[in-house]
Write a structure and sequence with these properties.
alpha+beta, two-stranded antiparallel sheet, 4 strands, 17% strand
Length: 84
Amino acid sequence: MAKYDRLLLRILRGASDTSISFDDLCQLLKHMGFEERTRGSHHIFRKQGIEERINPQRDGRNAKSYQVRQVSNILSKYSLGETE
């Protein structure tokens, strides 16, 4: 199982929201076709056909846990985890 597949599975399960690396989350979103726009410390991800913007923030080395849950909800809503 590839790194991104394992990370995607962890995010969709929601069991380890507090231990998802910020850099890994950003790389996963890019791998899934999201376009990143960075302004200073703000990272904003968009993808055509998806209304929501994803704006993850750092909490030390990791992404903020509530934002990992938001990413999980968006991926589930648009069935992105099933086709990747």
